[in-house]
Structure formats: structure tokens, C-alpha cells
Amino acid sequence: MEELLVVIHDRADHSKRSLSIPFTLNDTVQSIEEKISTKTGISPDLLKVVLCGRALERTTFLKDLLLGPTTSLIAFIENRPSPSSPATDAKGDTPLVRNTPEIGSFYVWCKNCHDVKRAKLRVHCSACKSSAVLVKKEPSCWRDVMKSRQIEVNCADCNEASYAVFYFKCITCNEKGAVLSHIRGNWEHAECSVCLDEHTTYLFDFGCHHMVCRQCLYECLTFALKESRFVFRPPFGYTITCPYPGCE
């Protein structure tokens, strides 16, 4: 059975320790919390398991987290709430709910694989590079993850407010890759605007409501290179127009 590295942070005294937990991909966050509890004696109710700056739902399966061979989970020991004072949100009347972000809905160009690959989003503290962080808000747009100093985090290692640094890793080889923000996963089996193929894994979004498959984009680029059909569009420089007939 494989082992997963879990770094446990105690918020009371700012101490931390590492544990190796046996796991399978069918384990859930809840079962990992129970395994941590068995080894440490800490109640599962006091544990908050974190990945990529967000607390994970207890029903989340590890196989859905796209964990790499060097990926570790962070487990925070929370202060025990008073029985008469249940956890509430900012309005003070609704129990807090753990939210798991969508993980793995990105694409990168992976130099190691020499191909476009699905990617996973990861985050660390801008000050000390630690991954033991909690983001103060979830990224809502590409600017949040591609520009610096957009999302604040609380870092458990340097114990101060800092900013999130996001990066992307190939899910096949776990290497960092350049994110391709114009690629969309074709989860809904949308048709390519040119060839009408609906079985492609992902589509290229040209920002004009037309999306094309990889083969059609390749043919468009080949034609543009051969015929010098590039257009100048500041601030990007020379690029191609949408492959859809009549769309400029």
C-alpha cells in the first residue's frame, strides 16, 4: 500500500510534524482524518485537511485530487468549538461548510511530455514558499492566478499574512508547465465550430464565441505560416484570426 505524507500544523503553538499515512485512491478525506487520529490521538473533528489553499470536503476521494508522487496534504488542528457556540459564517447564523475547489480543470504545455496536458493548480506562500497556506478567497478568474499579489493567504509556517503564488503541474509527469488559458475542457461535448467534431477532449477558445479543435487549429496555423496570413493585434503582436469562416 502506498503512503501519503501529511504535515500536521497545530495552530495553538504553531508547531508542526510529518506523518506517513497508508492510503489507496479510494480513500476519502474523512478516512485520512481517521487514520491521522489513530496515529496521533487527535479527534477527527479537530482536523481540517487542506490542499491548494482550500479546506477539502470530507467526502472527497483522493483519486479526484490528482496527487503527485511528491504531493503532501496539510492538516490543521483546529481549536475545539464550545458546545453552545457552533461555528458560524460572517453573518453569524449559518454553519460553515467546507468547499472543495474544482481541481484539474486546467491545461498546460508540458516540456517533459512534449504535449498539451491536463494540469492541477497548486499554491504556495509568496514570502516563504510554504504550501501550508489557507487562501482568504477562492480565485474567480485567470487574473487571480496569473497575476501576483491578487489573493491573500494565511501562512502556517511564517505566521503572517502574505500572498498566494499559483502554479500548474502536469498530471501525467508532475512537472511544472506553462498554463494555456485559452483551452477549455470539452466536458459538455460541444462541437468544433469548423469541423463539428464533438468528441475532442478540449477546445481552443478564440474569445469570439467560436471554439475549435486541435486539428483545425493546426491546419489554420499551417495555412497562416505558409501564406503569411497573420494580423497585428496590440498588445499581443502578430497572431491569427478565428478559423471560423467570416469571423475576424
UniProtKB/TrEMBL annotation:
This is Ubiquitin domain containing protein. CDD domains: Ubl_ubiquitin_like. One of its GO terms (biological process) is protein ubiquitination. InterPro entries: Parkin, Parkin_Znf-RING, Ubiquitin-like_dom, Ubiquitin-like_domsf, Znf-RING_14, Znf_RING_CS. Residues 4-82 form the Ubiquitin-like domain. Keywords: Metal-binding, Zinc, Zinc-finger. GO terms for molecular function: ubiquitin-protein transferase activity; zinc ion binding. Gene3D superfamilies: Phosphatidylinositol 3-kinase Catalytic Subunit, Chain A, domain 1. It comes from Haemonchus contortus (Barber pole worm). Pfam families: ubiquitin (PF00240), zf-RING_12 (PF17976), zf-RING_14 (PF17978). GO terms for cellular component: cytosol; mitochondrion. It comes from the Eukaryota.
